[in-house]
Amino acid sequence: xxxxxxxxxxxxxxxxxxxxxxxxxxxxxxxxxxxxxxxxxxxxxxxxxxxxxxxxxxxxxxxxxxxxxxxxxxxxxxxxxxxxxxxxxxxxxxxxxxxxxxxxxxxxxxxxxxxxxxxxxxxxxxxxxxxxxxxxxxxxxxxxxxxxxxxxxxxxxxxxxxxxxxxxxxxxxxx
Length: 175
What we know:
The chain is mostly helical and 175 residues long.
């Protein structure tokens, strides 16, 4: 998702500029994941007053909810576009579902062959590349399935959690 404004210009960025400038120096102008950002603030400002910490968590939650709302809007736009013009999407999805499984089987066979015949350094490189390509092919299949069938229960739970709001206080261990 394209970043619409510079991180330093966001509400969270402005808060960091005033309360935890060292964290802002670490992340630069990229908005890191909320968990990482919270851990950075916790470690960089251990003596931060509780009310400031709560304000930060509220700003971070608001940012996450805003990102979620934009993602939902984007998905709705994709659904509307698909309803109006779906021939190309159907063609691509059919090719992915038909051919990716065959490619995955071939890559697994190639990896087994490499394990039998290659030396350790070359084997590590080739196996890593085969693994990455296999994972990409699996992800393509999952994306097609999620598009046509809906996503997983975990994603639905995440959406519910985001729509209700959430607290960062005990969700993640500090780094």
